[in-house]
Amino acid sequence: MMPFTPLHAWKDQLDSGAVSAADVARLYLDRIGAYNDRLNAFVHLDAAHVLDQAAASDSHRAKHGPRPLEGLPIAIKDIFCTQDGPTQCCSPILKGFHAPYDAHVITLLKQAGAVLVGKTNMDEFAMGSSNETSMFGPARNPWDEACTPGGSSGGSASAVAAALAPAALGTDTGGSIRQPAALTGIVGMKPTYGRVSRRGIVAFASSLDQAGPMTACVRDAAMLAAAISGHDPMDATSVAGAPAVDWLAACDRRDMKGLRIGRPREYFVDGMHPGVRAAIDAALAECEKLGATIVDISLPHTEYAVAAYYVIAPSEASANLARYDGVRFGHRSENPADLFDLYTRSRDEGFGAEVKRRILTGTFALSSGYYDAYYRKAQQVRTLIRQDFLTAFETVDVIATPTSPVPAFRLGEKTDDPLTMYLSDIFTIALNLAGLPGLSQPCGFADDLPVGLQWIAPAWREDALLSAAAAFEAATDWHAKRPEGWA
Amino acid sequence: MQIDVRKVASLARIRLTDDEAEALGPQLNHILEYVDSLRKLDTSDVPPTAHPHDAAMPLRADIAANPNRREALQQPAPATESGLYVVPKVIE
Lengths: 487, 92
Prior knowledge:
The complex is a heterodimer.
Chain A: H1 7-16, H2 21-39, E1 42-44, H3 47-64, E2 73-77, H4 104-111, E3 115-120, H5 154-161, E4 167-172, H6 178-184, E5 187-190, E6 210-215, H7 218-228, H8 247-252, E7 260-264, H9 274-289, E8 293-297, H10 305-320, H11 339-350, H12 353-366, H13 372-392, E9 398-402, H14 418-422, H15 429-434, E10 438-446, E11 449-456, H16 462-475
Parallel strand pairs in A: 2-3, 2-4, 7-8, 7-9
Antiparallel strand pairs in A: 1-3, 4-6, 5-6, 5-10, 9-11, 10-11
Helix pairs in contact in A: 2-3, 5-6, 10-12, 10-13
Chain B: H1 5-11, H2 18-35, H3 70-74, E1 80-81, E2 84-85
Antiparallel strand pairs in B: 1-2
C-alpha cells in the first residue's frame, strides 16, 4: 500500500476489495507514529478509536454496501467539536475540553462512512498564519522542517502534505485553508460562505468563517466538499436553497477552452517573491495554451482588504470569545476574589498573546465612540470589496491569483511584528470579506518550496473553481510532486 | 489616536500584567495606524455589509425540538451544584 494515495484512489481500492478500511487506518496510524514527532501535525490521536471506526466501517460495507466516504481516513482540525476526544482549539483556555456534541460537518462525515483521525494542530482559535500561536508549538512543513506549513490550519496541511492522512478538514476565516495548502503543495478549498454549516465549529469571526477540504488533488476536494455541504436549519448563516453543485461532474469537465480568466493587477504587487510571480505567470501561460483567455482586470479596493479584515474579524472575535468566562466551560482561575476577578484572571491565564491582541483590537473597535469610525467603516469598505468582484465577474468566469505573496517562511521569521504576519494573508482575505469560494492548488516552486495558484469564482460557483483547477491539474504534474524523506 | 490599553482590557474582562500592557500598547497602536488607512476612502453613500449574501435571517418553525441535556452540557463546567453554575458571591 502506498501512503501518497489520493482519497479517490483509496475509494476505488476499498470498493474493489483490494484493501480494507482497517488496512488503510493502520497504514496512516503507523505513519503518524513514525513522523508526527518531527511534524507536530497531530495534537491528539486515539489509535484504538481510529481502528474501531475502521472496523465498524468494514462491517457496514459488508452488510449494507459502501457510503460515499466509506472507510476513508480524514484528519480533523482541532477547531471542530467532536464528542470523541478533546476539542481544544490549541488554546490553554480549552485545555481538556470535551464537547458535548459533534459539529454538524462531523456528523455528516460520520454518516458518509469516514474514519475520523485525531485532531490536527492550528493557531490558537485559528488566529495566525504560521501555526506558531498554538499552545502545542508549531506544526512543521514537510518540504522544509525549519519552515511553517502556514496557518491557521497548519497541522491539517502538514498531515496531508506528508501523507500522514490522505485528506483533512480545515477552516478558513482569512485564508486559513488556502494559505497553508499553498505553502505545503496541496489543494485547499474555501466554499462559498453559507455553503457549509458552522454549527459546532469553535467560532472566530462568524461572518467570515467557513470549513472546507484540504486534499492531495482537486477531485478529493470535491469528494469532501460534497459530503460536508448543505443547509443546516440549526445554523442561521447556513443558506437554504443555495444553488446546488454537482461536485464530481465539475471535476470531470476539465475543458478550459473559452474560459475567461481574470488577472487582477492589484494581486501582482512589488514585494512579491519573484519565484512566486514566475510560477503564476507560467501557470497562466499554461491556461492560455489550454484554450483559456487571460483578461487583465482591476479590483481597485484590494489594498484596503487587510485593514477592513483586521477590524471586522477581531470585532467579531471579541464578541465570540466573550463566552470564555471561567463559568460554563474552559479554564477557571483558582480562588477568585470576586466575579470580576474570576473573569479577568481566567481570561488572562487562558488566552495567548495573539488572541488577546485580537480581542483587545475588536473590543476597542466596538467600544462607545469608535464604532462608526472603525466597525461601520470597515463594513462599508467590505461592500466596496464585494462590488469589485461583482463588477469583475461581469466580464470574466473565474479569477486567478497567487495564493500567498511568498513561499513558506521560516518559523520565527515573522513573530516579532504582528502586522507583518497579518500581511501574509493579503491575497486570501478579500474572498472571505466577499463570501466568495476560493481554491488553492500547487502550480510550481520558488526556492524549492511549493507555490499555490488561487482560483476565485462567483458565489455558489464552486463548480467553476473545480473545473478550472481540474483542467490545470490534468495538464501539469505539480500536484504529483512530493516532499522527500517521508516515504 | 492612542489606545488606552488598560481601559480596553477592562472592557474585555482580561487582566493584563504590567509587562503585557507595556508590550500590547505599541502593538495595538501600530495595528490601529494601519487600519486607519480606511479613512482615505469616502464611504458616505456606501451601505455596510454584515453578511456576504444579504440573506435575511431565516426563522424556523416554533416547535420545541431540543431534549433536556443539562447533565451533558454542564459536564465541562469547572464548578456546578444541583444543576447550577457556581460563581463567587455577587450579592451582599
